[in-house]
């Protein structure tokens, strides 16, 4: 068995993108802590990876919409100096228009996609900085920059993930703690059933297989990318978008209104 690269914590590892991160990171040489609600599905993912790689793979059953469960996972992370990677992947979406969606379900989505991700990042980062080593991967979505595409609360939650990651990356510069934010496009997972639109209803040409998504995201990580959008073929489009944002940044706060808002 190769020497461990440390332990990677992966939330939402019982299916889809998180389960594939588990497989790939174990093969790279990480021990794993896999987190999700469904203990049986978690163990079904963990067992073959354990057998095939010989890595230490723990499973933690937690509903990350519940504060007690989030606190439990946060403590596990904060107390374990072996942890070198946190993949904040657990998330749910919705395809119904936001005003036609159940407000409680929207709050639960925010609790998972935003609050849990934030709390677990707060649990991991101080140790990473103190030890001068660590990686945070936040799974956002292309809806972070196209919130009109699906449910607006989902888009807003992923816009948070992108903005939070942008700020975190800036604050951690020089600390040897790397931040990556991944913006998947439509990906073939159970996400779509849970979100209310089976993936088979999407045009085939816009849906990426989950293994291709995860392998591309990991290649981006190995290149120390900050933003990784596996399905965007012309990366110059992101570069132009980001350059426009940066160019505007210095002009957004001034001591008088713009001429168009001056009366007369
Ligand atoms: N599939 C897609 O098209 C896209 C997905 N994404 C993002 O990718 C991430 C992974 O989704 P994906 O793999 O596609 O979907 P899946 O539905 O396959 O996976 C979601 C994972 O999150 C876990 N999860 C859901 N609710 C909770 C909860 N309350 N507490 C703890 N874990 C929970 C699920 O496990 P369990 O049910 O056992 O708790 C499961 O392991 C999400 O953040 C999603 O927003 C982004 C863009 C596109
Ligand atoms: N990125 C997907 C969901 O989050 C999509 O918009 O297809």
From TrEMBL:
<keyword id="KW-0560">Oxidoreductase</keyword>
<dbReference type="InterPro" id="IPR036291">
    <property type="entry name" value="NAD(P)-bd_dom_sf"/>
</dbReference>
<dbReference type="InterPro" id="IPR002347">
    <property type="entry name" value="SDR_fam"/>
</dbReference>
<comment type="function">
    <text>NADP-dependent dehydrogenase with broad substrate specificity acting on 3-hydroxy acids. Catalyzes the NADP-dependent oxidation of L-allo-threonine to L-2-amino-3-keto-butyrate, which is spontaneously decarboxylated into aminoacetone. Also acts on D-threonine, L-serine, D-serine, D-3-hydroxyisobutyrate, L-3-hydroxyisobutyrate, D-glycerate and L-glycerate. Able to catalyze the reduction of the malonic semialdehyde to 3-hydroxypropionic acid.</text>
</comment>
<protein>
    <recommendedName>
        <fullName>NADP-dependent 3-hydroxy acid dehydrogenase YdfG</fullName>
        <ecNumber>1.1.1.298</ecNumber>
        <ecNumber>1.1.1.381</ecNumber>
    </recommendedName>
</protein>
<comment type="similarity">
    <text>Belongs to the short-chain dehydrogenases/reductases (SDR) family.</text>
</comment>
<dbReference type="InterPro" id="IPR057326">
    <property type="entry name" value="KR_dom"/>
</dbReference>
<dbReference type="Pfam" id="PF00106">
    <property type="entry name" value="adh_short"/>
</dbReference>
<feature type="domain" description="Ketoreductase">
    <location>
        <begin position="6"/>
        <end position="156"/>
    </location>
</feature>
<dbReference type="InterPro" id="IPR020904">
    <property type="entry name" value="Sc_DH/Rdtase_CS"/>
</dbReference>
